[in-house]
Here is the input.
Amino acid sequence: MVRLRQLVLAAREQAPVEQALRELLAAPAPHHDPDVGAFGLTNAVHAAGCDFVEVVSPSEPGTAAGRWLARNGGDGGYMLMVDGPATLTAPDRLAALAVREVHRVDLPDVVDVHLHPRDTGGVLLALDAVDPAGSWRWAGPAWTESSPTCAGGLREVTVTVPDPGEVTRRWAALLDVPAVGGGCRLPLDDGRQHLSFVAGAGAVAAVTAARLAWPGVEQRAADVGGVRFEVVPLEET
Here is the structure.
């Protein structure tokens, strides 16, 4: 089963977006991963049910995120991270799909592969295979090789792209899932999540909207980091 686990925003200034996300998600203190410094970034990873919303900001010139921010003309949804079976990350499978890897790490509890956006046609996509199920090393020690009790998370994500039809076909193959309803929409997590591609005026792909749900949350919405967020109670999804 393939599941969206993390939405990543890129922001020129991390602190205000980090604070706005924490308020929107009513989240505990985020995890700051020093390892992203290898990419010239700082970050904050916020828990949202069983899934996560991260913000990254360049800490030095010449980063991929910094170049994306310049092309996008400001903050926005920069990357999606997907959790799936180990076969999803197999190098021979990705080579057969004519997609380049820009980063790969193999650890005892996770294989993490980042795919070249020019080959996916959409935003930066990371394919992850975790063990044990539900763990998520990138969220910090509490989620490394274990999974705290949780429910809900990401439910709908919208990505604006120049050619929705072509990108839908490409991502359906990359994620090994079928498009539904004859449109540009992919079901994930056994239908509990959906990923939609819509046409945009520009040439830069970006996540522009996200809907999240978990138990006991009050319904609210806000624009944060160039993304329109909606948070609803899990009972309403």
